[in-house]
Amino acid sequence: MKHKNFFNTLTFLSLLFIFSCNSKTKKDPGKDLLKPSYKEQKKEGDFTEYFDTLSNIYSNYKYNIAVSSPKNWKHDEGVTEHMIFRSFDRDSGYSYSINVIETNYNIEDIFWKEYEKNSVVVENQFQGIFEKQVNSPVEVEYTIVTYLKNYKALKRKYNYSVRNEEFEIDMTSIMYQVPKGDFTYTIGLIIPTYFYEHRPEYFDNIIKNIYWLSNKKDVDDAFSDLN
After folding, report:
1. Which of 41, 74, 111, 115 has the fewest Cβ atoms surrounding its Cβ within 10 A?
2. What span, in angstroms and rounded, lies between the C-alpha atoms of 203 and 7?
3. What is the per-residue pLDDT across 72-99, written as a single tens digit (0 to 9) for each?
4. Phi, psi of 181, deg, nearest 5
């Protein structure tokens, strides 16, 4: 199924749109906006992530995020540039992913300021891009401003259909988009609608089962202040 780059593409284009609306980057929204992706940075060999095979907990110390993955799901780092973690059950059609885009700006305040002014345009853009990705009409169940572990977030829930040969499957996609400092996180779950409707709380808990880790620099600074 053609799901692997949804969240990366949507996050990237949303960022470009948000910054193009802001006077600080209006002339050239793409210039000097993005830092190298995590996959590019990892080539330098720094130890910034860990996966505990006993607990199925993935921790990323570069982006200060951890996630508890279902024990019977497989995992990898995905295939798209800004995806840092993917967990999936191929037989059932479940897929969970975390994408992070790092910018040269603290985008948190700008993001919400510009989203408030341009939310209709942003959401129409998101829906249109998503429909092109899945090659199917999309039902937008809701888009709301909410919180994910105390950080302000956009939550979107889309429904659409996937056809393979003579089979047609209704799918549900749930996404949280969280701008946090220089990082924009997109945490997504794609699952057959039939399974979601029978166990909504179970799957809602999976996508929300993330943890924000302490920033190492902030911790070091705090200890320095005590000395």
Report:
1. 74
2. 18
3. 899 988 877 889 999 999 899 999 999 9
4. 65, -125
Q: What is the mean pLDDT of the chain?
A: 83
Is the distance from CB of 9 to CB of 196 less than 8 angstroms?
A: no
Convert the pLDDT of each residue in 8-57 to its tens digit: 556 665 666 665 565 555 555 555 666 776 656 665 666 688 989 888 89
- Token pair for 23: 């006077």
Rg (CA), the chain: 18
Distances from the Cα of 103 to the Cα of 16, 76, 81, 127, 174, angstroms: 11, 24, 14, 24, 24
Look-up of token digits 């948190």: 108
Q: Where are the alpha helices (DSSP H) in 27-82?
A: 38-42
- Three-state DSSP class for 177? strand
Q: What is the model's pTM?
A: 0.82
Burial of 111 (0-12, 13-18, 19+ CB in 10 A): buried
Single out the residue of 132, 104, 133 nearest to residue 15, CA to CA. Answer: 104
pLDDT in tens, 125-164: 889 988 988 899 999 999 999 999 999 999 999 999 999 8
- Whether 61 has a pLDDT exceeding 50, the answer reads yes
CA atoms of 180 and 195, how far apart (whole Å): 32
Strand 83-89 to 94-102 pairing: antiparallel
